[in-house]
């Protein structure tokens, strides 16, 4: 992606980056370097977000753990690799499988040497999208999920104490959806933890079914064009294209290696730009029937609120699914006729703090008017944070979110490729 390209905004009250362009290429998602209002702090303003100190819960961020690594080791649980703490010793092969080939730990583990503090730090920097990697029993215990710890050793449940990876900013309960799809977790446990389900009150507003939809039989290991209605008999074309390119690949725990494999299927035309989104196969089937976000309690995990979230970083989105998922590739989305808004740093912090439920003391004034009228919102993905008491900081990857019917329709019409990840 060309870092010099910027995204225009049609709202005269927002930080204007130019007039609507004449070509589609210049309206694709920007890299973080093309968002000057987010890479420079213009100082405080009357509307700057303020974290409240009068809150009973000073923790609660998705990367927060109620128990410590020291307690984990003292009770005899297997160690966990973490982005913050690294790993206490030689990293075992089953954890190294998730780390990038470029990680210094790859060279170290082949000997009996123990990683130094500096090498662990370098490993952390090389794996910024991973928060924890370790056995399920250890991960569940760190998160205080004692019932799930017991489930790992319950012979009546298919759940095994396998090593799994938890991405940043999602929390350990994120893995429950994968385990449920793989038929390793009983529905009762999944509902209780993932949806905060009370069997006496019902399922609330949750409407997304979770199942492992079969990959259409027409989809093979070579790229091919298919009619969308043949792939999804219950689809509604609406703004979706009549035909789509498809391919299936074997899942890989290495995000960089998976990204390189997928990049081979992307057009190499100069100036072509892409947005990416990973979803479950059932979510894909629902999107093909109605290309709109499903609204439920998990939307509070979305930094910019309910919408269809995409990113220009393939490696970033792959952290949410290296198997049993579908990757949607949007090519040169045309947003020229829409209200495209790129938030300033202050506005972006307000929105992210609000939707990730940080305790703001000036909540009534926290939502910018531009957010209410936007069709498409551009901004960075925040850096990992372990507490609710820290304002979000912009990370290196950007996100583009369709937040209106017109925005969703424009995004849908640019769908070019679906990669089924086995």
Summarize this, please?
Residues 7-17, 31-55 have a biased composition (Polar residues). This protein is of the alpha+beta class and 422 residues long.
Summary tags:
alpha+beta; about 15% strand; single chain; 16 helices; disordered N terminus; about 425 residues; 4-stranded mixed β-sheet; about 25% helix
Strand content: 15-25%
Structural class: alpha+beta
What's the number of structural domains? 2
Major sheet summary line: 5 strands, mixed
Instruction: Give the N-to-C terminal Cα separation.
Output: 28 Å
Number of helices: 16
Identify the strand order in the major beta sheet: 4-5-12-8-6
Query: Overall mean pLDDT score?
Result: 74
Rough shape?
A: globular
Oligomer: single chain
Please give the radius of gyration in angstroms: 22 Å
Helix content: 25-40%
The count of strands amounts to 12
Notes on the protein architecture:
With 422 residues, the chain is α+β, with helices and mostly antiparallel strands. The protein folds into 2 domains: 1-59 and 208-422, no CATH class; 69-194, no CATH class. The protein contains 16 helices and 12 strands. The protein has helices at residues 36-39, 69-74, 93-96, 104-109, 117-126, 136-142, 146-152, 175-181, 187-194, 228-231, 255-263, 281-289, 314-318, 345-355, 369-373, 405-413, and strands spanning 81-82, 130-135, 163-167, 224-227, 243-249, 274-280, 308-311, 325-331, 340-342, 376-382, 394-402, 415-421. The strands form 3 sheets. The protein has a 5-stranded mixed sheet. Strands 7-11-10-9 form a 4-stranded mixed sheet. Strands 1-2-3 form a 3-stranded antiparallel sheet. It is globular and about 60 Å long.
